Design the sequence.
């Protein structure tokens, strides 16, 4: 029978779902538009596209630095407040890099954007786990689809926007970058309304819910723990609580070998994706494709990646659970080699996009299935994203330097193929059914076996 608080909780969930969707829309749009505009930005600033390849690495470096700090920020200020301020920072960073000013503003604004996105990357899955119960798979699927889809749209529309004609002539790349943040104010308003909506109170239980913390950090942590397994289709088997008083989970995670495998897989996956997202358009224009069509190819790559992400549950089953993490990066490397060696073609771009989407979903899935509870998964997510993006940050710049040094795309191709092979090897290790913090000590012998 519905309780008196059920309608109130339903209204809040509707508001929160809308807010989550709007936040997802803004999680990639501000960074995926950089690649197709590299040549315009370089021409305007009087530098080379290869030198600006490092611009795509700035958000990755910011993610590497900020991700491990995000868990502490959310525990201190609460999930809602931390995400809200991250949206404010995202809005400021987008305006900072887009408006006329010294060239350093482009880099500093992009760094602020990266820091804001790092907070969202880590905390939005925690919000979904905490509040949506048995709807977690649905909400997470919608969130991932919007995140990838709108990032793809941004990559496809920035070049046409940059060529719009106005009263003073061509509006240019600055307006194009500014429009990538057009939905941030809408998302911020929706998020504030959802955060202020009354939350249905839950009775105090022996699992540690804190009634005195009305939506605050302690209550966030308690509810996150309670929702650890709610509606999760791929959850680790339950285990007895582990004593963590000697060292917080956030510190213990850095000493766990399984966590490091997950982080390495995340890093190599991100390296490959951001190399492709940044340099696919220049590769195509170098082969004679128009800049507009090259931007559409980047959009297609990311749109198709959504299909790869959504197809993961169909592939991650049976014996493929063990081998999928190793197979997918080899498919991505092979399809990109075909693009470079035989020229851009629709089948290779589609295959590459499918592989990239599946690879990203595997990385995120590993953060859930290699942890036995939500708090551990949160710590693993922060650690893996920090290390992962630290690994990925030099990728686009190194790709550009390899092209500049060789004058061709063979050396950059070799760099990406090396990353694909490395990801496949890590995938062989991380595909094994092991969990973070599992003790691998030899079990004690029974008295009968001792006497034997």
Sequence:
């Amino acid at each position: 029978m519905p309780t008196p608080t059920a309608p109130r909780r339903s209204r809040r969930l509707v508001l929160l779902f809308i807010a989550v969707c709007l936040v997802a829309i803004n999680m990639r749009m501000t960074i995926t538009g950089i690649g197709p505009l590299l040549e315009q930005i370089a021409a305007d600033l009087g530098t080379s596209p290869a030198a600006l390849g490092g611009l795509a690495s700035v958000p990755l470096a910011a993610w590497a630095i900020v991700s491990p700090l995000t868990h502490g920020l959310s525990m201190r200020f609460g999930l809602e407040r931390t995400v809200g301020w991250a949206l404010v920072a995202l809005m400021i960073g987008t305006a900072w890099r887009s408006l006329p000013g010294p060239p350093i503003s482009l880099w500093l604004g992009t760094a602020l954007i990266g820091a804001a996105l790092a907070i969202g990357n880590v905390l939005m899955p925690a919000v979904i786990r905490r509040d949506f119960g048995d709807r977690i798979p649905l909400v997470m699927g919608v969130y991932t689809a919007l995140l990838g889809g709108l990032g793809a749209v941004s990559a496809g529309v920035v070049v046409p926007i940059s060529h719009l004609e106005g009263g003073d002539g061509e509006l240019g790349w600055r307006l194009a970058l500014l429009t990538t943040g057009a939905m941030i104010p809408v998302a911020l308003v929706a998020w504030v309304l959802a955060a202020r909506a009354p939350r249905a109170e839950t009775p105090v239980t022996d699992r540690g819910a804190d009634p005195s913390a009305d939506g605050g950090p302690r209550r966030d942590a308690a509810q996150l723990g309670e929702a650890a397994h709610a509606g999760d289709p791929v959850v680790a088997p339950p285990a007895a609580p582990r004593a963590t008083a000697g060292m917080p989970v956030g510190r213990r995670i850095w000493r766990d070998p399984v966590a490091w495998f997950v982080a390495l897989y995340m890093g190599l996956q991100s390296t490959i994706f951001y190399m492709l997202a940044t340099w696919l358009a220049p590769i195509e224009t170098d082969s004679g494709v128009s800049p507009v069509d090259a931007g559409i190819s980047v959009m297609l790559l990311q749109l198709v990646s959504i299909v790869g992400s959504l197809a993961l549950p169909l592939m991650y089953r049976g014996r493929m659970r063990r081998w999928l993490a190793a197979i997918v990066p080899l498919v991505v490397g092979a399809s990109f080699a075909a693009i470079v060696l035989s020229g851009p073609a629709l089948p290779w771009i589609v295959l590459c996009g499918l592989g990239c989407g599946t690879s990203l979903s595997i990385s995120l899935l590993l953060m859930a299935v290699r942890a036995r509870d939500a708090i551990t998964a949160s710590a693993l997510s922060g650690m893996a994203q920090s290390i992962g993006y630290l690994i990925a940050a030099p990728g686009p710049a190194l790709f550009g330097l390899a092209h500049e040094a060789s004058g061709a795309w063979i050396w950059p191709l070799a760099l990406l193929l090396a990353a694909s092979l490395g990801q496949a090897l890590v995938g062989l290790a991380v595909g094994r059914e092991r969990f973070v913090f599992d003790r691998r000590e030899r079990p004690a012998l029974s008295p009968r076996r001792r006497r034997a």
About this structure: The mean pLDDT is 78. Strands lie at 165-166, 169-170.
